[in-house]
Amino acid sequence: MPKNVNRWIVFFIGLLIAPAIALAERQHAMQIWPTIPFVRGKDLCQYQEAYSKSKNSQSQTLLSNVIALMREGAQDVYAIGIVQAIDEMENLNRARAASGLGMDVLLEGSFKAALDGYYRDVQPAQRKLSFFNPLQLTQLVRTVRDQKRQGYLDDKMVKELQGIFWGTYSFGPGCTGNVLVTLHLEDKDGETYSFQGQGLPQSVMHALAGQIFEYFQRTKFPSKVTMGKNGLEVLGAPGAAFAHTPDTPSAERVCKQMSGRLPTVEELEYVNALGDWNGGITLRNDIWALRDNLVYAPDLPNPSPVRKTDEVRGQQIHFYCVR
User: Fold this and answer.
1) What's the predicted TM-score (pTM) here?
2) What mean pLDDT comes out for the span 74-93?
3) What is the secondary structure of 31-100 as a DSSP string?
4) The domain containing residue 146 runs over which residues?
């Protein structure tokens, strides 16, 4: 068969498998149902108010308010009525604020916006979490138009998802307007990841989104990366991303027990360039162990950050292993 024919065959095969490769890359992200059901928990504001003081203490507070009004000239009957009316009005306002729909919609919307904001700012090479809507857009439009939440999900749609978020919220103690929110991610295998935050309704989910982004996007070990034409496996350290050592020979012995070794200068710099969100480890301003009894000191760039261990004596040395 002529060589040019072989080239055309290879070209067309590439065109055919390119979409499949792109789809496989997208499927690395855990696809999550976009609706987050929330269950309302105990009102800690009212609970604290009811039980933080004894009944006798509450009676003393009420009596003090009545006496204060009487000193201002109110008759005793009217003074008691005024105190009771103020107390009832406060309870009514709190009941109105806590009743009705809307809190779950606010928490869901602000969480998804905050999580997407982290992804836009950091832009990791591979997104680990992604919201996926298995419904047709026409169904979504009808649901939103009718002022309803997207809630329908059958077995066929579940097959296209890898997990679901659900959460709880409670009005926080102290009656300062805070809410206590827990968020749980359950995947298809039944494994559950739980996170908790407390703050104002409009901002609490931003902190939760940060926790979740860091947990799922931060490098997990061992991490396999491509360096040039070869693969490199970043092993980390025993039980952690990196560890500390008094000298490089000690670190080399640890790496040997992990069937690995200390990185070269090129490997260390490349893993640093990948960063904490793309399978690597950021050096920051620490001193790192290298092969051949050398260290890498980012704060000592001149003439070179590669130094002998004697030049950084007394300073803490960080290390991780590769293979």
Assistant:
1) 0.72
2) 58
3) EE-S---EEE---HHHHHHHHSS-HHHHHHHHHHHHHHHHHTT--HHHHHHHHHHHHHHHHHHHHHHHSS
4) 31-41+101-217
